[in-house]
């Protein structure tokens, strides 16, 4: 009985581990927490029983049991979250690294209780101590996980540090596995046991210190990105305000001159000078300002569209923008504006390097349902488009294009989708944005 109970107890640490990994992900679950617990807990217990039985019958060591358990839990974790894989994988590996450090301490406890042993699995007492340490760490980490870590994970600004963070827990996992002695009895010589415990706890403290440093760094990068976005929108709104003020001024002047135009038209009509009347009408029509004051009811989207409309007109690029959007969008305004501004900016850059006879930009956005927005931007281009591993390469610098990556991340984070096609000198971006 003990042969099955020992691996079962050690494998059962996946329960507090998964709980800790899910704490900052509450708002990103594909199913409700109650349904998630109802599915995972029985499945995890059954998995631990099966692996314990196989390890007992086949006399398998710790990696052969813990490895499949962690792998299957990781797959389940990724499938139940609606968030970037970079973030979910990083959080999962971070928890694994912490519990691996605690496992080193539990291994030391096992060797203190049983100095002479060559077994891979912990004793029942050491396993209970391991489980207790894991649950205690979950309780200590509850508040930071549901507040600081939650804010960082849910922040829409994707800090570049997430691309590298997963390396850190992998390094600490490797260090802890490397520290496990091949012959446990060597821990009884001299002060090796004290050194082993000290190193295990030091690795845990060092790992937690690195986590705090990563949080501060990522939070600072996200804060700077928010400021950059706010400055961009403020500049767009300022440009829209200047355009609107100019249009209003021109319209007032046109209305003021309208009375004089009518008098002149009346005199020409009375005298029967039809050719002069036609020329005068043509000249007066050309003097009326042709400025679109409003693209849609939503103020933020209208500011972005107006900003780029002015840039297109200033560069002589033919364009058409159709935004059939209400005042309140079913998705966050900042998400839609980021996607729209990235697409219109890319279209502008491509058009500036396209023959003036071929330049053309068309943008359209409308509500497909109560919580879905469909956005399409088409533009002509000259030259070639570089794509690597499904990612568009930047035309301004070496590496992947940041704009298209940002669009894809925003679209996919809430169950939307994006598709980019290019053929015969026409680039087309089709984006579906879904509200929660």
Query: Quick one: overall form?
Result: elongated
Radius of gyration: 32 Å
What percentage of the residues does DSSP assign to strands (E)? 5-15%
Instruction: Give the number of helices.
Output: 14
| Average pLDDT | 83
Structural class: alpha+beta
Give the proportion of residues in helices. Answer: 55-70%
Question: What characterizes the major β-sheet?
Answer: 5 strands, mixed
Poorly predicted regions: none
Q: Which assembly state applies to the chains in this document?
A: single chain
The tally of beta strands, per DSSP, is 7
The main sheet orders its strands as: 1-2-3-7-6
Q: Terminal Cα separation, in Å?
A: 49 Å
Please tell me about this protein's structure.
64% of the residues lie in helices and 10% in strands. Strand 1, helix 13 and strand 2 form a beta-alpha-beta unit. The protein folds into two domains: 2-226, no CATH class; 292-436, Histidine kinase-like ATPase, C-terminal domain (Heat Shock Protein 90), CATH 3.30.565.10. It has helices at 2-11, 14-22, 33-58, 62-79, 85-113, 124-146, 148-154, 162-165, 167-179, 192-271, 274-287, 299-314, 333-352, 402-413, and strands spanning 319-324, 361-369, 372-380, 387-388, 391-392, 417-423, 426-434. A five-stranded mixed beta sheet has the order 1-2-3-7-6, with helices on one face. A two-stranded antiparallel sheet has the order 4-5. The longest helix has 80 residues, at 192-271. The protein is an alpha+beta fold. It contains 14 helices and seven strands.
């Amino acid at each position: 009985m003990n042969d099955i109970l020992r691996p079962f107890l050690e494998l059962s640490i996946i329960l507090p581990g998964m709980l800790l990994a899910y704490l900052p992900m509450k708002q990103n679950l594909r199913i409700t927490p109650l349904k998630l617990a109802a599915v995972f807990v029985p499945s995890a217990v059954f998995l631990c029983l099966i692996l314990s039985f196989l390890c007992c019958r086949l006399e398998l060591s710790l990696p052969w049991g813990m490895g499949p358990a962690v792998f299957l839990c990781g797959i389940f974790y990724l499938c139940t979250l609606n968030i970037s894989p970079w973030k979910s994988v990083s959080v999962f590996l971070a928890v694994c690294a912490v519990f691996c450090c605690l496992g080193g301490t539990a291994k030391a406890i096992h060797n203190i209780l049983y100095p002479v042993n060559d077994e891979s699995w912990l004793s029942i007492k050491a396993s209970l101590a391991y489980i207790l340490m894991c649950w205690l760490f979950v309780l200590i980490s509850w508040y930071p996980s549901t507040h600081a870590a939650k804010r960082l994970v849910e922040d829409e600004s994707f800090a570049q540090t997430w691309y590298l963070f997963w390396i850190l827990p992998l390094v600490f996992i490797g260090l802890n596995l490397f520290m496990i002695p091949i012959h446990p009895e060597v821990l009884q010589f001299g002060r090796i046991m004290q050194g082993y415990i000290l190193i295990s706890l030091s690795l845990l403290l060092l790992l937690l210190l690195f986590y705090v440093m990563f949080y501060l760094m990522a939070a600072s990068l996200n804060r700077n990105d928010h400021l950059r976005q706010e400055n961009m929108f403020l500049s767009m709104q300022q440009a829209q305000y200047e355009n609107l003020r100019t249009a209003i001024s021109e319209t007032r002047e046109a209305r003021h001159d309208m009375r004089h135009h009518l008098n002149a038209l009346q005199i020409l009509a009375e005298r029967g000078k039809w050719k002069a009347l036609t020329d005068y009408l043509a000249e007066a029509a050309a003097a009326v300002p042709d400025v679109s004051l409003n693209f849609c009811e939503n103020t933020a989207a209208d500011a972005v569209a107006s900003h780029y409309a002015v840039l297109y007109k200033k560069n002589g690029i033919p364009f058409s923008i159709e935004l059939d959007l209400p005042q309140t969008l079913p998705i966050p305004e900042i998400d839609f504006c980021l996607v729209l501004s990235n697409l219109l900016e890319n279209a502008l850059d491509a058009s500036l390097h396209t023959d003036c006879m071929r330049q053309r930009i068309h943008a359209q956005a409308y509500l497909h349902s109560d919580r879905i927005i469909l956005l399409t931007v088409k533009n002509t281009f000259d030259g070639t488009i570089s794509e690597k591993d499904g990612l568009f390469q930047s035309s301004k610098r070496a590496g992947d294009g940041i704009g298209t990556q940002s669009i894809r991340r925003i679209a996919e984070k809430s169950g939307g989708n994006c598709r980019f096609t290019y053929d015969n000198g026409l680039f087309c971006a089709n984006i579906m944005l879904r509200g929660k």
